[in-house]
Amino acid sequence: TVVSKTAYNIVRQNLPTSNFNMDPSQKRTLDKEYVSEIVGQPINSYFLSEGSKKGDNVIGKMLSVEVETENEEKLHLAIKSLLPLVGDCDAASIGQAHFVTQLQVFPTELAYYTTARPLLQKVTGLKLDKPKFYSGCSDGLNDYIALEDLRNQGYKMADKKKGLNLPQVFSTLKNVAQLHAHAYAVIESNNETMNEAMSTSPLSGHTWGRSIFGLDQSLFFNSIIQKMVELLKEIGEEESAKKTERFADEGHKILLDLWRKTGQNGTKYFRTLIHGDLWINNLLFKGNSDGESVEDIAFIDFQQCRFGNIYEELHYFFFTSTTADFRKTHLRTCLQTYFQNFESILQGLNTEMPRGFTVDELIATFYENVEYGFAYDLVGIPFQLGEPIHDSPTPGNQQSDGPSDQQLDVEGILKGAAEGLKQGAKNSPIAIQRLKELTKEMIKLNCNFPCHTTFKFLTVNKEKSLFTMDQWDYASGLLLPGENVIGVQANVRLYNGDDKIQAKNDTGRATLTTHRFLWETTALKASFSLAKVQRLDKESKGFTSVFSGKCPKIVIHVVASQKPPSAATSPFINDTHATFFKLGFTQGGLDEFLTKVADTLRQKVWEKKAPVEQKRRMGILGIERDIKDEFKKTDQKISEAFHDLKSLMEMAKPMVQLAKNISNRAAKQAASNPEDEEDAEALQFRKQLLSLGIEEPVTKKSYSKKDEYHLHLAMEICSALDKLVLEAGGMMTLVEAYCRINRARGVHVISPHDLMGACQMLKKAPNATLTLREFDTKVKILQHISFDDDLQIAQALSLVEERGSVTPDEYAIAVGVPIFIGKQSLIMAEGQEKLCRDESVEGLRFYPNLFLNEGIEAS
């Protein structure tokens, strides 16, 4: 977490240095032995340097460590520590350490790297493996986290003063969706380790929910917002200051209220694991210098990692890492991108989406809780963008080596820190600009009211309230049991009788389901039961155009309500006697929508009893059950298919012997009658018999050492493939050799790795007739020892001179060898200056080297 240097020093210089369970004299100092323990292996040397800019690392000390192990491996580490690992501790460092231990940042981050991330990687295959975690400690004195330093690999932070661009945001959302989805899948599987972490580990708490020396953090959080209100007044932004004042009283509550919603309201705020501090300085990007191309991304600083909901993460990220202009242009697209990635990952994990969680629900709930983002950024701007000012004593306190316990005034210290943040922001033009943009954005979205009065700005023309509207209900966006979406139409106006509902956005999205009408804007979701509809009419009066403001409408006549309206259940309060409402279609689509409504009303699906939902197989447990079922089915199929396998294996040896006897007889018959040419069918039959099988294949279990196994396997390969390689022209590709040897071995299949190991042992095999050859092009083949390069070169030269020129394909077909072997023969002839090549759009073609012919005169 980055903090203004001023606030950082005010806090740390005034915190207590005694009466806490910390003896700095007992802390460990970084030396060769300690570094060896940290990296988990003996080292030759190490080199230290500063790991961050001064004042940039409020949670502790940062060192960059270059290590050379005894194996001469170069390691680059970033080590964060509670107390300095080199040199003595001054009073400020000790006071700061007391402050940090109150927030539990080291235990929290350590819990992520030692428990949460390994669990997700093991259970669901989470691929967020950077940076590498080496080791850590959280004993309250020697706290440290040692991670791989990615900066020397080309990873770097983006410019916090500019904010992230679209490629960087997309990359971030793709990866954070991966974290959220994998954690959700494990939580849904009821994993015991995850359940324990959610209830007992530091990941179960909120950093801003912990007290500082017994003092609630609301004082500090709200004091910072109050200072931003004062700053707005000082720079002449009176309206913005007035609109922001409420956050100075409720900011901290808004912060924790959203976190406390986790797991409530069905699955709307479903529980998952979030980074908790996802902003520019905790993101490392690898790509080009302007950030327009992102190759990779790494998340760092999981000090506020916790179990929460995705809206906490998304609001914090967008409002601290992007500009107001970016959000205005790209926010909806970005949220859609997050949703698509989240959905895709859950599908890959065979885990069902949270019930009712759609892209529209995501966007609507994001705006519903937009106050959270504003509250956090009002605090984040001075922290992240404030300019350092010269250190000065906190008002009312004289600087010394550290105040005594009697002098300690935590409340005064924190208020002084808030004042320091204000001065830092005041000295920063970019902080001032970002603060103005934020408050203007807040006013535009009408965010100056409490969350529970979100719908107050919805009024009716001429201040009328029509009675039909009290039958509308608040909608969560979740579908009812058995309910399905029939149609959706954007840019639809809602009319309360003849009067248009005036919202911030003139139009909303109308959704027709089998049970309800839904009407949604960025701030409101309302629903109306189809069971209350009496009849439909179509209204298309007068001249309609985008300039006249008129549009064709569907008139929905409804049953009169017998209940008094209630603000707790309805977003619209009414007291007149109109018996209809209207939907105005500003961008077309009325006829199609009207047809769907009429059909739905005739079917009356809402009257049918919803089917009892079967127990869902979701999450990791579902995967495990499916795997067990598949195992049972597979076992049954194997038992049926290979019931006689034992008998077949017993018959395999005599079958191979019989094939050899037949082949030998055919060979003797051909030898006794050399003048009779063996016909093609007899020759093909003999080849098939020769490659039918191996009597006793070499197996791993027969040998204790791998080299011994590979040596005997090499001898077997020579025996089985000797004649086949000769017939193939003296060379055989490893792919063909792999297929041939495994065909001969039957069920005793070897791996490509074992084949390569055996080929490398051919040079040690006694009486080996085959060798492993590697060409200059790095292509490896099996070659018979009788193979003669000069003969192959002469054959290639002869064919090229005969035809004038050949391609590798033409040569391979003419000689009867694989194409790449034919190409190698031509390349060998070229290497001997017998041939020359021509590469053109037609491909590669070889010609005789005319410069070697006598009688050619230079022109």
UniProtKB/TrEMBL annotation:
**GO cellular component term of the entry, any:** ESCRT II complex
Q: How does it assemble?
A: Component of the endosomal sorting complex required for transport II (ESCRT-II).
Superkingdom in the source lineage? Eukaryota
Citing just one GO molecular function, the answer is: ubiquitin binding
Give the species this sequence originates from.
Orchesella cincta (Springtail)
Compartments annotated for it: namely:
Cytoplasm; Endosome
Residue span, GLUE N-terminal domain? 469-613
Q: What does this protein do?
A: Component of the ESCRT-II complex (endosomal sorting complex required for transport II), which is required for multivesicular body (MVB) formation and sorting of endosomal cargo proteins into MVBs.
> What keywords sit in the KW lines?
Cytoplasm, Endosome, Protein transport, Transport
What is the recorded name of this protein?
Vacuolar protein-sorting-associated protein 36
Q: Which InterPro entries match?
A: CHK_kinase-like (IPR015897), EcKL (IPR004119), GLUE_dom (IPR021648), Kinase-like_dom_sf (IPR011009), PH-like_dom_sf (IPR011993), Snf8/Vps36 (IPR040608), Vps36 (IPR037855), WH-like_DNA-bd_sf (IPR036388)
The record's similarity note reads:
Belongs to the VPS36 family.
- State where it is primarily located: cytoplasm
Q: Does Cytoplasm count among this protein's keywords?
A: yes
Q: Name one Pfam family in it.
A: Vps36_ESCRT-II
What is one Gene Ontology biological process annotated in the Swiss-Prot or TrEMBL record?
protein transport to vacuole involved in ubiquitin-dependent protein catabolic process via the multivesicular body sorting pathway
